[in-house]
Amino acid sequence: MSNIALTRIQREFKEVIKSDEVKNCQIKLEPFEDNFTHLKGEIIGPPDTPYQGGKYTLDIVIPETYPFNPPKVKFLTKIWHPNISSQTGAICLDILKDQWAAAMTLRTVLLSLQALMSAAEPDDPQDAVVATQFKQHPEIFRSTASFWAYVYAEAPRNEKMKEYEEKLKQLQEMGFHEKNSRITALSSKNWDLQAAMEFLLP
Amino acid sequence: MEIDDDLLANSDAGTEDDDEFVELAPEQTSAMDGMDPEEFPYDVLALEQVVTLMVDIIKEVRNVVEIPATTTRILLNHFKWDKEKLIETYYESDPDRIFADAHLISPSRKVAIACSKREIKPRYSVKENGEYVCEICYASVPEQLMSGLECGHRFCISCWTHYLTTKIMDEGMGQTISCAAHNCDILVDDETVMKLLSDSHVKLKYQHLITNSFVECNRLLRWCPTPDCGHVIKGQYVSDKPVTCRCGHTFCFACGQNWHDPVKCSILRKWIKKCDDDSETSNWIAANTKECPKCRSIIEKDGGCNHMVCKKCRFDFCWVCLGPWEPHGSSWYNCNRYDEDEAKRARSAQEKSRAALQRYLFYCNRYMNHMQSLKLENKLYASVRDKMEEMQKHNMSWIEVQFLKKAVDVLCQCRQTLMHTYVFAFYLRKNNQSIIFETNQRDLEQATEQLSEYLEREITQEVLRDIKQKVQDKSRYCESRRNVLLKHVHEGYENELWEYLDNI
Ligand SMILES: [Zn+2]
Ligand SMILES: [Zn+2]
Ligand SMILES: [Zn+2]
Ligand SMILES: [Zn+2]
Ligand SMILES: [Zn+2]
Ligand SMILES: [Zn+2]
Fold first, then answer.
1. Which residue among B91, B242, B262, B407 is the one 20 to 30 A from B314 at the CA level?
2. Looking at the structure, do residues A11 and A32 belong to the same domain, yes or no?
3. What pLDDT, on a 0 to 100 scale, did the predictor assign at position A94?
4. Which segments constitute the UBC core domain (chain A) (predicted)?
C-alpha cells in the first residue's frame, strides 16, 4: 500500500469513528484483517424506505492508488434494489466509477450508498429485473424490497410478509429446496407462483 | 523487432542522435533507393513540434474568439480541427449551445457553478497553525506548496501530480481533466498540467493524448505506428510514398502500413481484412513447424532460408512447397506461380469454392512465409555481426567487411517486396503483363533465397575471401532484380496495364 493511501485510510478511520453518524449508529467501519486494504463497512437502511432498520454489510477493497482511484465496494448482505445486483451485490454508482474524486472519503461513500438506498436511479440499472419491477410495479417492488430486508438484513416484519412466506412454503413443498433461489424466483416473477415454478424448472 | 545497437555503433558515429531513440538494425533509409526517382518531401516532427503546430492554430482561433486555450482546443476537437467552421458556427449560433455540444461549460458561467448542488460538498482547506491541510493526503503543508484553479479548490502539489498522473497513465485521459474536487467541472488547462507534472514519461503521454485528435484530423500529419515512438510525419501532400521516422521505421505515408511497394494501399487494405477474416486458416499456415515430407519428423524453421534439411533423414526440401530442393536451385525454379489452368479444372461449385480457398492459401502461405522470414532475419544481423568481427581478425579492415551488413539489408528489402508481390498477384487478372510480372517475381525470389542461403549457411563454411565475392555479386543481383520488378509494376500502373479480379 502506498504511503498516501495508508495515511489516508488511518485518518479516515479516526474521522468515521468520531463522526455523528457512528454515534447515531448509522454507519460503521472496521478492518477485515489487520491491514487496511480490506475493510468491512456497515450501513443502516434509511427511514421511510423498504430497507428501514436493516443492517447492510459492505465489502470494501482499497486499491494501491487510493485515493486517486475509488475503493471497490460491494454489498455482502443481499438486497433488492435497481442499482445493486441481487445476485452479486455489485453496485452501480457514479462516484465509485468516473465521478470519484480524490477528496472524497469512505465516509462520503457510505453516506452516498445510504442516499442511493433512499433514491434509486432505475434508468441506470445494475439489476435489470429489479429495475423493471421498480418502474412497472412500484408496489410489488416496495414489498419485495422490505421482504428481502427482513430475510437478509434483520429488518422488522410486516403484515404483507405472511403471504410471501406462504408462497415460499408452497414452492418448498413442490421440492424446490434452495431458499435463496425460491426467493429470487418469486421476487423476479412478481410473486406469481406459476411463473416462479417455471422459472425454477431446469 | 530486435534492436541491435552494437552493429550500428560503428557505422553511426557521424549522425546526431538523441539517446531516446535507438535505431533499428536495418538501415531503413535505403529502402527508398531506386524505388522512386521523385523525392517525396516530408519532415519528421517531435512531439513538442506537434504541440507547437497545434498551439499556433489555437492562437489563431483565440484571436477571433476570446475563450481560454484549453477550451479552444476541446472545441477544435469537436469541430475536427476545422477552424473556419468553428468560428463561423460560434458567431452564427448560440455559443452556449456549442459549449454544451462539446460537453464544456461556457467559460463565462463556469466559476458561478463551480461547486455542485449535490448533498456531498467538497470541503475547503483548513488552516492549522499557519499551514494548510491538503484534503487528499491530509498532510499539513505551507501555502506555497498548495495549488488550485479558479474554482478555489486547493490541494498540495504532490497530490495534484499524483492525481494528474493517474488520470493520464491509468485512464488515458487527456482531452478533459477536471479539478480533483468532487463534482467540480473546472478544467485543468494544458499549461497547468505540464507545470504540475515532473515525470517526462507522463508529460510525453499527455502531449500525445492532447495532440492525438489534432494529428488524426489532419491529412498531412501521420503518427509513426511504432508503439511509444510519438513522432509525427508531416507531408506536403498526401501520397503513397515511403517515409522513414527518426526511430528507423519505414512506412507508407498514405495508409500507415509497413512500406508495401509494389501493391497499392487499397489492395493491401483489402488483403489485410481478408487475412483477419480468415485468421484461423492463416494461423495454421503461419505455424512454425512442418513435417519432413519424407520421414514425417517435425522440423522447426529457425532461419529465414527456405532451403530445409531434415536433421533426421537429411532430405533437402523447400519450406514453401515441401517439394525437393533440387529444382529450386536450377533454372526451372517453379515455386512462385500458382497454376491457374489446374485450378480451372475444378468444375462443381464445391470444387470451385475449394479451389478458391486453395488459391488464397497458396498466396497467403507465401506472403506469410516471407513475413516470417523477415522477422527471423533479425537473428541474422547478430550472426553476421560475429562473422564481421571474425573477419576483422583475419586482416580485413572494417570497411572491407561492411558488405555483409549491406547484404542483410538487401535481403530484408527483397523479402519485404516479395511479401507484397503476393498480395498484388492475388488480385491480379492474368494477362501478358502478369506473366512478365510472375517471371520477375520468380527470379527475385530465387535470387533472394540464394542470398539467404549464403548468409545463413555457407558463410560459416567457406573461405572468407571467396565468400565476399559471392555474397556481393548475389546481393547486387538481388537489388537489380528487385528494381526491375518494381519498375515494371510502376510502369504498369502508369499505362493502366493491370487488371484486377473482382469478387474475391
Ligand atoms: Zn496532498
Ligand atoms: Zn475545483
Ligand atoms: Zn517512429
Ligand atoms: Zn499505403
Ligand atoms: Zn526427414
Ligand atoms: Zn518451393
1. B407
2. yes
3. 83
4. 4-154
| CB nearest B135 (choices: A68, A103, A111) | A103
Could you tell me if B477 and B457 are in contact, meaning their C-beta atoms sit under 8 angstroms apart? no
From CA B298, how far away is CA A196, in angstroms rounded?
59
Comparing alpha-carbon positions, the chain B residue that sits nearest to A103 is B136
pLDDT at B139: 85
pLDDT tens for each residue of B479-502: 999 999 999 999 999 999 999 987
The three cell numbers of residue A128 are 435489470
3-state secondary structure of B222: strand
CB A62 within 8 A of CB A71: yes
Lowest mean pLDDT among A42-51, A84-93, B69-78, B324-333: B324-333
Place of cell 468520531: A18
For residue B305, the model assigns a pLDDT of: 64
Residue A182 cell numbers, joined: 425460491
Domain boundary among A86, A118, A150: A118
Q: Are residues A110 and A183 in the same domain?
A: no
Instruction: Examine the domain organization and report whether A16 and A89 are in the same domain.
Output: yes
Structural domain contains residue A87: yes
Rg (Cα) of chain B, in Å, rounded? 30
Domain B3-235, CATH class in plain words = alpha beta
Is B134 a residue of the active site? no
CA of B251 to the centre of ligand 3 (A): 9
Q: With pLDDT > 70 as the criterion, what percentage of chain B qualifies?
A: 75
Domain with A76 in it: 3-118
Q: Which of A55, A108, A111, A113 is nearest to A83 (CA)?
A: A113
The span from the CA of B449 to the CA of B373, in Å, is 10
Mean residue pLDDT across chain B: 78
Instruction: Give the Cα separation of B445 and B447 in Å (integer).
Output: 5
- What is the average per-residue pLDDT within B359-376? 88
Q: Are residues B243 and B223 in contact, defined by beta-carbon separation less than 8 angstroms?
A: no
Structural domains in chain A (count)? 2
The angle at the Cα of B215, spanning B211 to B217, to the nearest 5 degrees, equals 120
Tracing cell 521523385 back to the chain, one arrives at: B38
Residue A158 included in any domain: yes
Domain ranges of chain B: 3-235, 292-346, 357-494
B69-103 per-residue burial string, b: 16 or more CB within 10 A, e: under 16: ebbbbbbbbbbebebeebbebbeeeebeebbeebe
Chain A positions touching B162 (Cβ under 8 A) are: 4, 68, 102
ipTM of the predicted structure? Answer: 0.71
Which residue reads 494477362 in cell numbers?
B431
A12/A83 same-domain check: yes
Chosen for mutation from B162, B164, B184 (greatest number of chain A CBs closer than 10 Å) is B162
Q: Which of A68, A98, A111 to mutate to test the interface with B (most CBs of B within 10 A)?
A: A68
Claim to verify: residue A98 and residue A142 sit in the same structural domain: no
- In what helix (H) or strand (E) does residue B316 lie, and over which residues does it extend? strand B316-318
> A167 and A92 share a domain?
no
Considering the domain delimited by B357-494, tell me its CATH architecture. Answer: Up-down Bundle (1.20)
